[in-house]
Write a structure and sequence with these properties.
By secondary structure, this protein is mostly beta strands. The chain is built from one helix and seven strands. The chain binds nickel (II) ion.
Length: 128
């Protein structure tokens, strides 16, 4: 299993190449850390689960494809190159009718399913 890089000798991180190293949907993979934040690649397909993160905002940057972030009163559509910050404590669901690749930026230790749990809860700190 890949380990976190040596922070004393940083190297460029090739996101496209990293995306070839895993295929599982809804299973974020860490590619970098900055202070106590992590940058995670994720592949989305279908509907995730409704959840909220009580202690942190959560940012999505779409790398390819298109995704939706659903809220109880509206839906945001994100296309390649779009950035969206989900506010802490706000219930949301991510959806992707076709496969979408995104970069998630959030503090280390955030659970992907937030307060909801369930089968789509991913292991944390899995690097590619
Ligand atoms: Ni979330």
């Amino acid at each position: 299993m890949p380990q976190s890089p040596n922070p004393a000798q940083p190297e460029p991180i090739h996101l496209a190449e990293k995306l070839t190293q895993f295929h599982q949907h809804w299973s974020p993979r860490v590619v970098a850390e900055m202070n106590d934040y992590q940058f995670k690649l994720v592949k989305l397909l279908g509907d995730f689960v409704w959840h909220a993160h009580d202690h942190t905002d959560e940012a999505f940057l779409v790398l390819s494809g298109q995704m939706e972030i659903g809220f109880r009163d509206r839906t945001a559509t994100l296309r390649q190159g779009d950035l969206f910050v989900v506010p802490r404590g706000v219930e949301h669901i991510t959806r992707a009718p076709q496969e979408c690749h995104a970069l998630i930026i959030e503090p280390r230790g955030v659970i992907n399913t937030g307060d909801s749990g369930g089968a789509l809860t991913a292991q944390n700190d899995v690097w590619v």
